[in-house]
Specification:
With 482 residues, this protein is α/β, with parallel strands linked by helices. The chain is 32% helix and 21% strand. The protein is globular, with a radius of gyration of 23 Å.
Length: 482
């Protein structure tokens, strides 16, 4: 039977094809945003891009154009850690142009203030919800929800290629893959995929210049193992205990010999000294008050969260209702700030404004800790070596009050690359004050790697020291020395 001169089966096929294509890329441009007074002073775009062999994975993103010159300023692809923490967390708590107005919050829809230290002052930024199951990203198939370190990187690479095809005016803009915390396992992989894709002649050619990482998970074992020497350096354990545990455990604190009673006794003492310290920022209150576990020393090593590097379980077992949030203030803790993101992102008017597909997710979470995720990569140190050897630029920074991924562990793998130091260890300054310390190294060609500590900052350094981190990234992107 014909309809408008065409067979029904052909019309159905065309309709299905159109639906498939329409779901490959879906974009919403926002001039206003619930909670923000008046018109947005920047260009905000949200959308989905489908990836995967069946285009069943729908990755959601927030894109904000540079407030300077979008066609000349660099483009950052920002991945928040976890794995499973939304790009919105990076946007509103770290480097984006908006921050919540905590002082005015009364339990209703949270409102926003402008962030004067947004990295969008100097770059355009794509904040991506990845891997699938993070934030507003979802899959149309059950199988699509399973992801790993390696498949996540491939999905991000596919996303970026499709995004650039849909945004051709950014195809020649200098690109930096970026992120913090667990994205240290993903960002170098994505950068290397881009490098190899460009070398193979894939189009469009992506103008990768380098990458930026903050307090990155790089080698899951050595990162965690460095917490003991860090605890000693900042005075959380005594010199006598550090000497004893170093000798008794032979420098192995995560997977010690459990038959070594002296080592296990020292591990239990270290655990008791640090269990109520806020790992993500050692000078701040700990948001969960776990009692020292009597099983420490008998079940294994210093079990500080395994391979998941969420910020000190800030979101664990919280009541995210507006009535609970309205009672914030009796005793400040950083996870009180995070409550507002749950209230805002789960609001129906907010999701409608963002273009969220009805029924795609049951409940938005800042960090989804129930992902079907396999940790299939133990270290990205070799990726760093390959990228720097290929001539790419890198900025790696560490908040020096972070005990989740201590700066001493990051410096250890940096030194293992045996790069040539071209700018020796020295302080760097903002407004005449020391903001941290920096060293720059290279391998034969290119600009090499700049490493910087951020003095006084915690795990997500821009959240703690926003002005200093903006100056840091501005100098790096402008190719000025810190």
């Amino acid at each position: 039977m014909l309809q408008n001169g065409l067979p029904k089966w052909l019309l159905r096929t065309v309709a299905l094809l159109f639906l498939s294509l329409s779901r490959t890329v879906a974009v919403t441009v926002l001039e206003t945003l619930p909670g923000y007074p008046g018109k947005l002073p920047f260009m905000l775009e949200t959308g989905y891009i489908s990836v995967g062999d069946l285009d069943d994975i729908q990755l959601f993103y927030y894109f904000i154009e540079s407030e300077g010159d979008p066609v000349r300023d660099p483009l950052l692809l920002w991945l928040t850690g976890g794995p499973g923490c939304s790009g919105f967390s990076g946007l509103v708590y770290e480097i984006g142009p908006l921050t919540f107005d905590y002082a005015s919050f009364n339990g209703s829809l949270p409102t926003f203030l402008d962030n004067p230290y947004s990295w969008t002052k100097v770059a355009s930024i794509i904040f991506l919800d990845e891997p699938v199951g993070t934030g507003f990203s979802y899959s149309t198939t059950q199988e699509g929800y399973y992801s790993t370190d390696k498949t996540s990187a491939v999905a991000v690479y596919q996303f970026l290629r499709k995004w650039l095809i849909e945004h051709p005016r950014f195809s020649k803009v200098p690109l930096y893959t970026s992120g913090d915390s667990y994205s240290g396992m993903i960002v170098p992989q994505v950068a290397l995929l881009i490098h190899k894709g460009n070398a193979a002649g894939l189009q469009p050619q992506i103008e990768l210049q380098g990458y930026i990482l903050g307090n990155p998970v790089t080698d899951s074992h050595s990162d965690q193992n460095s917490r003991v020497p860090y605890a000693y350096q900042v005075g959380l354990i005594s010199s006598e205990l550090y000497k004893s545990i170093s000798e008794n455990c032979n420098g192995e604190y995560i997977y010690p010999d459990i038959s070594n009673s002296s080592c296990m006794a020292d591990i239990e003492l270290v655990a008791r000294c640090t269990i109520n310290i806020c790992d993500a920022a050692i000078l701040e209150p700990k948001c969960s008050f776990d009692k020292p576990n009597e099983e420490f020393g008998r079940l294994g090593g210093l079990n500080w969260g395994g391979k998941k590097f969420f910020d000190d379980d800030y979101d664990r077992d919280r009541d995210f209702s507006s009535s609970s949030a309205s009672r914030i203030g009796t005793r400040w803790c950083r996870n009180s700030n995070y409550v507002l993101s749950y209230i805002w992102a789960n609001d129906e008017t907010v999701q409608e404004a963002l273009g969220i597909r009805n029924g795609s997710i049951p409940n938005w979470m800042r960090c989804n800790k129930s992902l079907a995720y396999d940790y299939d990569l133990n270290s990205t140190v070799s990726y760093h070596f390959e990228l720097i050897s290929a001539g790419y630029r890198a900025l790696v920074y560490s908040g020096d009050h972070d005990m989740l991924i201590p700066h001493v562990g990051t410096q250890s793998w940096l030194f293992s690359l045996n790069m040539t130091v071209v700018d020796t260890w020295r302080p760097w300054f903002v407004d005449g004050q020391i903001s941290g310390y920096t060293v720059k190294s290279t391998i034969d060609i290119g600009d090499g790697m700049t490493y910087a500590t951020v003095k006084g900052a915690g795990h997500t350094a821009p959240e703690y020291n926003p002005k200093e981190c903006l100056r840091m990234v501005d100098r790096f992107l402008s190719r000025y020395a810190l």
